[in-house]
Specification:
InterPro entries: NusB-like_sf, NusB_fam, NusB_RsmB_TIM44. GO terms for molecular function: RNA binding. This is Transcription antitermination protein NusB. One of its GO terms (cellular component) is cytosol. Involved in transcription antitermination. Required for transcription of ribosomal RNA (rRNA) genes. Binds specifically to the boxA antiterminator sequence of the ribosomal RNA (rrn) operons. This protein has about 160 residues and is an all-alpha fold. The protein has a single domain, classed as N-utilizing Substance Protein B Homolog, Chain A (Orthogonal Bundle). About 70% of the residues lie in helices and about 0% in strands. The chain is built from 8 helices and no strands. The longest helix has 28 residues. The protein is globular and about 45 Å long.
Length: about 160
């Protein structure tokens, strides 16, 4: 059985392919909630604990990896300077000029690239693109894709090179 206490996937824990898909679906939901929460944090400036509490009260978390949601939300905030420093060379705009939704998606994806090496870089890029399609501007997903395609080799050089062989 997959424990809710850990974010690590152990193949021995999976009873079936559906169990693995269930975990990915719950993580996808966690990313969606975290993107919305990060947007709110950026726009309204409320404390993370307030935002997290509000999201847990106002939303059904039965299909959300709540631990991962919390890690993403607090991880992005805690590592914001490192994340923005990593992102900046891959941007044609300043951080301040970015659309707030795309900024939330890029910060979340950059956090995963930096701190969650258990999540393959291609998954991070794909999830970022999907988030931008759902929440971003019309062509926001193209922008997010371009930035993450530049960023991944900088942050996951060995993994990206190994994949291209």
């Amino acid at each position: 059985m997959i424990s809710d206490d850990t974010d690590q996937f152990n193949p021995r824990d999976a009873k079936s392919p559906e169990a693995a898909k269930g975990k990915s679906a719950k993580r996808r939901e966690a990313r969606q909630m975290a993107t919305q929460a990060l947007y709110q944090w950026h726009m309204a400036g409320h404390s993370l604990n307030e935002i997290e509490a509000q999201f847990r009260v106002d939303n059904d978390f039965s299909n959300v990896d709540g631990t991962y949601f919390r890690e993403l939300l607090h991880g992005v905030a805690t590592n914001k300077t490192e994340i923005d420093t990593a992102l900046s060379p891959c941007l044609d705009l300043t951080i301040e000029e970015l659309d707030p939704v795309e900024l939330a998606v890029l910060r979340l994806s950059t956090f995963e690239l930096l701190k969650r090496i258990d999540v393959p870089y291609r998954v991070v890029i794909n999830e970022g693109i999907e988030l931008a399609k759902v929440y971003g501007s019309t062509d926001g997903h193209k922008f997010v894709n371009g930035v993450l395609d530049k960023l991944a080799p900088r942050l996951r050089e060995v993994e990206v090179k190994a994949h291209k062989r």
